[in-house]
Write a structure and sequence with these properties.
alpha/beta, 7-stranded parallel beta sheet
């Protein structure tokens, strides 16, 4: 049986690592776009690594390398993301530019580069790691980040529309705080009380294995009671 191939960025820790581990257990082959730390994957025949940094914008080269290695691409999961915890007034131009480049332009460019390959099977999948911060602005301190995540949620819906007739299905995963380095850096002391990376990986696995007739546009994920978004 031919194994399906997924491209995942930011896969050396946190959510990306959990997704990579889950898809490997599901029988996928992976091409991981990572800045460093490829050593941990060296002995796995189902893992190809590529030196990728969303700030540098080498998505086309990554796609070409993955196709040269596997001959196909069935899913992309641009998981790399950054957060600057500042308001839209406090944030510096270069900080906002960096969030835009990593959180929005990186996924858009990866999807554009992989679009033809994703179309070939008629069952391509794109998982966009959005956020509840892309559906509401919870505080002034998260508002600059929300600007990028509102945009990436719109990107997910745009990709869903652009790819639908090609058999490409796009799902935006929109979690609240997750037990990662980012979650800890913004003040969550008890990481056991918030969303676990493995729970996000479970949702990603569900979304990419759904048939074309069961397309899910968004999956909001809450760990606490708040207004439904």
């Amino acid at each position: 049986m031919v194994k399906r191939v997924a491209l995942i960025s930011g896969a050396n820790r946190g959510i990306g690592l959990a997704i990579a581990q889950r898809l490997l257990s599901d029988g996928w082959q992976l091409s991981l776009g990572i800045r460093s730390g490829s050593e941990q994957w060296q002995n796995n025949p189902d893992v190809h690594t590529f030196k990728y940094d969303a700030l540098e914008g080498n998505e086309t080269q990554w796609v070409e390398a993955a196709l040269a290695h596997y001959g196909r691409i069935d899913a992309i999961i641009p998981n790399a993301g950054i957060m600057v915890p500042k308001s839209v007034i406090e944030v510096e131009d270069d900080e906002l530019d960096a969030m835009w480049k990593v959180n929005v332009r990186g996924p858009q460019q990866l999807a554009k580069a992989a679009f033809s390959a994703l179309s070939e099977s008629g069952q391509g999948r794109i998982i966009i790691m959005a956020s509840l911060s892309g559906k509401r602005v919870a505080s002034a301190g998260s508002s600059a980040y929300s600007v990028s995540k509102f945009a990436v949620l719109a990107l997910a819906h745009g990709l869903r529309q652009a790819g639908f007739d090609h058999g490409i299905r796009t799902t935006a995963i929109c979690p609240g705080p997750v037990a990662t380095d980012m979650g800890q850096s913004i003040g969550h002391k008890d990481l056991s009380a918030i969303i676990q990376p493995e729970e996000i990986a479970e949702l990603v696995s569900t979304a990419i294995h759904l048939p074309n007739t069961a397309s899910v546009a968004e999956i909001p994920v809450h760990c606490r009671a708040e207004a439904t978004v």
